Amino acid sequence: MDFLGISLPSYSLETVFGSAISGVFLGAIYALVALGLTLIYGVLHIINFAHGSLLMLAMYAVFFLWSGFGIDPYLAMLIVVPGGFCFGYLLQRSVIGRASHGRDEIILLATLGVSIVLENFALFAFSANERNVQVPYDFDGIDLGVVYVVWPQLAALAGSLLITAALWAFMHYTDTGKAIRAVAKERQGARLMGINVEHIFAVSFGIGTACVAAAASLLAPTYAVFPQVGYLFVLIAFTVVVLGGMGSFVGALVGGLIIGVTEQIGRLYLGESLGLITISAIFILILLFRPTGLFGQRL
Q1: Which of 36, 86, 106, 115 has a CA positioned 20 to 30 A from the CA of residue 55?
Q2: How far apart are CA 283 and CA 290, in angstroms?
Q3: Is the pTM here over 0.70, yes or no?
Q4: Under a CB-based contact definition with an 8 Å cutoff, are residues 231 and 52 in contact?
């Protein structure tokens, strides 16, 4: 089969469909990481460069809860999600907010600095060795006919759907969610209406960190933990956020699924290394033809 003058291998429809199904589960993982990123962008209007490092830190927390106390990674979510919220809230109020002096460009640099500090802290404290969470249901799953899906993949898909729905409901039906949307739309207007904008900034950062902590619990049974693990996901998460529309939860979910399917199909036809080029191609095409993303910029 030829495409743009390139000779591609031929596969049966069943094989292609199986790859697409695998891509859906892979995309669910990308969507999980992108949810917190898009929330923070929607409110603070900055790209959080520390997002990958926060994911790495949360995965270490899940690993040590499992290795030290025997807590299952999914049960660890009950600890790391509230802990992630508190850590993110305090990080924004005590470091990022203070260092920025209200200037968005300095917030961006502050998150980059936090990322560097966290990564080097992990290298110093935990070394560069990979650590794995081993659970008895690692390879258990269901056979869908064209692809075998393990339980951790199903949990990641279910988790991404539930977290997206929960965030959407939180933003639309709670007073805090409405305050976050007001600050995202018009910061000064929200301040005049009595909303504590600095508190809302920190709450948004805390929720974004809690999202990445939930993603860490769902990723831990499948992926090894090491200081640079966040880079594997956060760079793709940036593409997912741009594709879905910055600030859109539904866009993050749909964008993640599209990227996951495209990556798996690309790997099938172009190989493990060249298959990733499809993600870069999508990123460039979106910037050229629809820079607001599929769902625009809204919360």
Answers
A1: 106
A2: 10
A3: yes
A4: yes
